[in-house]
Amino acid sequence: MNIVAIGLGNFGASLAKILTSLGHDVLGVDNDLNRVEFFKDVVANTICLDATDPHALRLLPLKEADAFVVCIGNDFGISVQIAALLKKFGASRVICRENSSIHLTVLNAIGVVETINPEYESARIIAQMLPLKGIQNLFSITDSFKIVDLLIPDFLIGEKRSVISFRKETHLKIIALKRNHRLIYSSANAAENDDKIEIEFKENDTLVLGGELKDIKRFLHE
After folding, report:
1. Which residues of 83-115 are buried (b: 16+ CB within 10 A; e: fewer)?
2. For the segment 40-60, what is each residue's pLDDT rounded down to a tens digit?
3. Residue 70 and residue 82: Cα distance in Å, rounded?
4. Residue (of 80, 25, 86) closest to 58 by Cα position
5. Sequence-separated (6 or more) residues with CB below 8 Å from residue 205
6. Contact of 66 with 95, CB cutoff 8 Å
7. Which among 45, 124, 152, 202 is placed 20 to 30 Å from 13, CA to CA?
8. What is d(CA 53, CA 197) in angstroms, rounded to the nearest whole number?
9. One short Pfam family name for this protein (predicted)?
10. Average pLDDT over residues 159-171
């Protein structure tokens, strides 16, 4: 994808760097030349530009970019101004960082329907992870259905289970098993009869599971 990230603060720079590492064509934009210079080696492309200036903004690939992400969160007015200009100039997809209900309401009012609140999202994820011992990452599919990756629990070390028996016992689906940074098992690559193959769990394995939160909790407290 061709993505323009406007604002290279902590969030914007992190987003631009990760997208670049994933192979996307990223243009990082900031009005601070020092930031632009600092990140030029880790973001695909960077440019120093005042995105609140309509004439300067027109220099960006408004029609070619697949998405513009306005990463500015500490200045309500500037964020809305840039988003409004992008919508006016016909950017196909505008995603904005927001940091309050008022900010969100104004963005929605000018036609921005995709928003990000990284502070809230981080807090929500951490709040869900805290009671779950050993969880490294958690992804919410719905309020109750989660995908988690965790260090193999002590009670599983040395055990052998088939994928189908594991699911029957725990009501959780094994999505992947990683060992020493290598993928040992992946449900995406599994053959039709792969459920009959036994997996031996070893110390320091990482297990990726999908299922209801109540079943994940029950599994972790065996």
Report:
1. bbbbeeeebeebbbbbbeeebeebbeeeebeeb
2. 999 989 999 999 999 999 999
3. 8
4. 86
5. 151, 152, 177, 178, 179, 184
6. no
7. 124
8. 61
9. TrkA_N
10. 90
Fold type of domain 122-220: Alpha-Beta Plaits (3.30.70)
| CA 159 remoteness from chain centre | 33
The model's pTM is 0.75
pLDDT of amino acid 68:
97
C-alpha span between 215 and 222 (Å, rounded):
11
* Residue 197 pLDDT grade (very low, low, confident, very high; cuts 50, 70, 90): confident
By C-alpha distance, which of 109, 103, 138 is closest to 122?
138
- Distance separating alpha carbons of residues 184 and 186, to the nearest angstrom: 7
Using DSSP's 3-state secondary structure scheme, residue 76 falls into helix
Three-state DSSP class for residue 36: helix
Domain 2-116 fold is Rossmann fold (3.40.50)
pLDDT at res. 192: 57
CATH 3.30.70.1450, the chain: domain bounds: 122-220
